[in-house]
Design goal:
Length: 201
């Protein structure tokens, strides 16, 4: 998929940014084993199973936004393998749907807005927010599995452009922990994670 020049100039990377975030996170999901389901994660009070359930719910919400229909999902009682398979499947489905929506929008046939809680939100903002959540939770999964998988530099740099627009003081504490200090020579991945209240190392 070719991203229009106007989209590349905007901080909102949209579907292309979501695609890269999902690609990174799929690598983290490959590390998950049944024995790790109760492993702690960087998300306070969540073990790996709870994190995977949250990720599945989040992808479901993005799916609903793209298809404009309500899907109720019961994840209780699933095995770890079932959860990982569901996330992978839903991520691939999501990209197909949003890519088609983006092409429709570029041709002038689609709508730029999605109603979220009754309020209009542009496709580009919504998918960029999804990319931020998917990528950072991909890092969380890797940490829970005992692996060091920093976000790719270009992906982290692009997410750093949108993160301050999506995460405000009203989100802390609550959705996010307070931002942590960084050093001038920290990588883009480390700076993004620190901004979201995570300790990169």
């Amino acid at each position: 998929m070719t991203t229009p020049v106007s989209a590349r100039r905007s901080p909102w990377g949209g579907v292309e940014l979501l695609e890269r975030a999902i690609g990174y996170t799929r690598g983290s999901l490959a590390l998950v084993t049944p024995e790790l389901m109760s492993a702690p994660t960087p998300c306070d009070r969540w073990d790996l199973r709870a994190l995977l359930e949250h990720m599945d719910d989040s992808l479901t919400s993005l799916h609903e936004a793209g298809t404009v229909r309500r899907v109720w999902l019961d994840v209780a009682g699933r095995s770890g393998a079932d959860l990982v398979d569901s996330i992978r499947h839903r991520a691939c489905q999501l990209l197909a749907e949003w890519s088609a929506d983006w092409e429709s929008l570029m041709s002038g046939a689609g709508s730029a807005d999605v109603l979220v809680d009754g309020r209009p939100l542009t496709t580009r903002v919504l998918t960029s927010a999804g990319a931020l959540e998917v990528a950072v939770h991909g890092w969380d999964v890797a940490v829970a599995c005992g692996a060091q998988r920093p976000l790719p530099d270009e992906l982290a740099t692009d997410l750093l452009r949108v993160a301050p627009l999506l995460v405000t003081k009203l989100d802390r504490p609550g959705r996010f922990a307070p931002a942590l200090e960084t050093q001038h020579d920290d990588s883009a991945s480390d700076r993004l994670l620190a901004f979201l209240g995570r300790r990169p190392r």
